[in-house]
């Protein structure tokens, strides 16, 4: 065998050996960052809907963007679901359902089907890691809990369904572990998604500061405006390290609820590069609403 033939043979063997491993990568299609104010649901917002028109338009744009990616799985990360001390909580019920009854509109209902295979892969991937998902379900597996969806998940799912997206997936609630630990959880989740072998979209749900104006729900703090400015800038420029090392004074002053959702999502992009796209930002009602898309590197 001459040298050229030997090189070609070695290359073919390398491709054959690496092919299956390559096949489990790049299943993450898109990450959407969304707010979750029930007031942007038309039946709830009604006359006030126009006050958050940029957000409404942004949610529609993002949902259509996700639809064009043709995902087969949806992962929703929310700060308002059931919290577990053990780690980020994963609901294992076959079907999840919720409504906006607490906001005066029980007729607006949202459903989501769980993907058991992805949940099993997540548990498997986390088995040797320092952070593991806390399983919430209706069986002896994990912690017993009901199957109610929270508004942090329902608001973005509403817009996805309006865009024609009705796919199974996984509902995850943030944990209160360190940012580094939540980022690691995102990396574990990405490995599970890649092994699952179906294109997946992610929604990282969360509002920014709740203290932008004197009439804001949590009162006014000037740090809220600065927090929002910095977070939007960091995301726009892909400055993940700055997000992981966010000034904790500003975080506390902002009264935010989305940072941990975003960090888990960013963990899913670890080392793979991404293109950020800020779709809209506004602060009506004293709360910061950001709609953005993170496009994974191919």
Report on the architecture of this protein.
This protein has 298 residues and is of the alpha/beta class. The chain has a single domain, classed as Protocatechuate 4,5-dioxygenase, Chain B (3-Layer(aba) Sandwich). Helix content is 40%, strand content 22%. It has ten helices and eleven strands. It has helices spanning 3-22, 42-45, 53-69, 116-126, 151-162, 179-196, 222-236, 240-244, 248-254, 259-267, and strands at 28-34, 73-78, 89-91, 95-100, 105-113, 134-137, 143-144, 169-173, 200-205, 274-282, 289-296. It has a nine-stranded mixed β-sheet with strand order 7-6-3-8-2-9-1-11-10, with helices on both faces. Strand 4 (95-100) and strand 5 (105-113) form a beta hairpin. Helix 3 (53-69) crosses helix 5 and helix 4 (116-126) packs across helix 6 (179-196). The two termini are 37 Å apart. Mean pLDDT is 91; it is low at 1-23.
- CATH architecture group name: 3-Layer(aba) Sandwich
General shape: globular
- Fill in the CATH topology: Protocatechuate 4,5-dioxygenase, Chain B
Helix content: 25-40%
How many domain modules? 1
Q: How are helices and strands ordered from N to C?
A: HEHHEEEEHEEHEHEHHHHEE
What is the rounded Rg? 20 Å
Outline the biggest β-sheet. Answer: 9 strands, mixed
What is the structural class?
A: alpha/beta
**Alpha-carbon distance between the two ends:** 37 Å
- The amount of beta strand, in percent, is 15-25%
Topology diagram in text:
Layout: H1 3-22, E1 28-34, H2 42-45, H3 53-69, E2 73-78, E3 89-91, E4 95-100, E5 105-113, H4 116-126, E6 134-137, E7 143-144, H5 151-162, E8 169-173, H6 179-196, E9 200-205, H7 222-236, H8 240-244, H9 248-254, H10 259-267, E10 274-282, E11 289-296
